[in-house]
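Q: Could you predict the 3D structure of Pyridoxamine 5'-phosphate oxidase N-terminal domain-containing protein?
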Amino acid sequence: MSDEALRTILSGSDLAVLATIKQDGRPQLSNVGYTFDAERDVLRVSVTDSRAKVANLRRDARATVLIQGDGRWKFAVAEVRAELFPVCTSPDDASVNELVDIYRTISGEHPEWDEFRQAMINDHRLPLHLHVERLYGMAG
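A: Sure. Here are the predicted structure tokens for Pyridoxamine 5'-phosphate oxidase N-terminal domain-containing protein:
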């Protein structure tokens, strides 16, 4: 399968299954919303600091992402390396600004950006970048 066809699947969705590695070696699966930055080959995600996936990625940055295509047997699997940003602490810090950009890319404008920024701090959220290292799947 061509990488171009598989990247089309990555670009055509905003929901994926993220598999991280638990301490006992088994996978921990999470549904995540994302946006794909094709120029940098990075999936960008908003995550909460207290979640298992974040603890797993702090311990082991390797992960795998499954994105379902528009047909029953169309899918892309990206083996990725995780980059966790700092937890949001201020309405105008780099992490909050990145989460604003992720939200805006996926959903458009928020009706109240000040409330959104404060919620990112209150929820202990942080940006997660998943750098694509290998891509495989079926594109049709």
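Q: Anything worth pointing out?
A: Residues 3-138 form a domain with the Pnp Oxidase; Chain A fold (CATH 2.30.110.10).
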